[in-house]
Amino acid sequence: MSGLEIRHWAGFAQRPFLAPERVRAYQDARIRRLIHHAWRNVAFYRRRFEDAGIRPEEIRGGADLQRLPILTKADLRACRDGELLARGVDEASCLAEISSGTTGEPVRFVRTRGEEYTLFAHRLRAEVLSGLRPWDARMKIGSAPVRTLPHRLGLFRCDAVSDGQPHTQILAELEKKRFDVLCAMPNILDILLPLFGESNLRSRKLRRVFCGAELLTGATRKRLEETLGCRVVDFYGATEVNLVAWECVRCGLYHTCDDAVYAEVITEDGRQAGAGEEGSLVLTALHSFAMPLIRYEIGDVVRRPAAPRGCRIGFGAIDKIVGRVADHLPLPDGQWLGPCRLIEVAQSIEGVRRFRIVQTSPASLEVEVQREEGFGEEQAGRLRGGFEKLLPAGVRVEIREVDDIPLTAGGKLRIVEAWRGAREP
Ligand SMILES: [Zn+2]
After folding, report:
1. Could you tell me the distance, in angstroms and rounded to a whole number, from the CA of residue 185 to the centre of ligand 1?
2. The pLDDT value given to residue 222
3. Which pLDDT value is given to residue 409?
4. How far is the CA of 252 from the centre of ligand 1 (A)?
């Protein structure tokens, strides 16, 4: 372990409480190390730095990063296989994840196990700062959590109820389990909300509800807090870097996780956003060395707060996030289908550049595909087959190739749009 890593873990618990200038000094040291590493070991970045006329020693910290170009999803997609991986990384021993992010364009990200656990630790620390106690049990609605050392010691326990089952079944399982903190995506909570009022969860006094991965609306938050009688805390994460920011229970803003990511908010005219201004979020991942992400434009629009709120947490803040929207789909039998599995299917098909799923009635689904090389009849058939497996018999799936899938204002894409009753003509 290098000196920088030892200092990272020694100061880990207290770092969110450091003064902002000390947080910046920490970030600058990590950025210098990352830039030198990328220059020496990643051909893609070396070429980029040379094209920009930059030597690695000229980047002394976050403020100098602006001299480097922004890395877009299109840049990543244009890379050849393995071009972004650092020299000497054994990809077979790494974890790979595919993200289609806000814009619905799948990109593959690679991390070592060590990097993955480091990012988990940052998320866990944010959960503790949001009220989680080591002896609290968390229950997740979704895929089974990764078992890490603290879990095995009986600390920070986490269990899961699958979201791939009817919502009445999800509720029945939740009622049987004992837990203090419920972790779920806002969409599924929205669907369960009408059932919570009659359930034993209401009388059990949960400690917190942790939300993430999707936009949490003010209305859902209010109804959840009223129904379950506990605080709802929102976490803003992304496949590429895990935790980006979390909602502070002290000041109400979202604090960026500044010792995991260096966050810039870039306005439409290319400036760093000032107080109260919106812009595109650009992240430099401070712990990703296997596949570095330097000035990566994640595709979400965020806003800097109009005024500081004098919080004990010294990390930076944003106060509004416009992310990807994916709805749950009502099915003809009265059940609901979560969007994640549909998204996974679409992401797994070769030649799908961007996609959008529109449910035109409970029994009919239109899938728009913006294709690239490699997408043909066979891929369209696999896409349809994958969807049909997830849907009850009788639901019609239509695949349509389109030239472009336009984003709405702010670069937002409603990647899965559910049918919500007959619309006015
Ligand atoms: Zn705060």
Report:
1. 22
2. 86
3. 43
4. 6
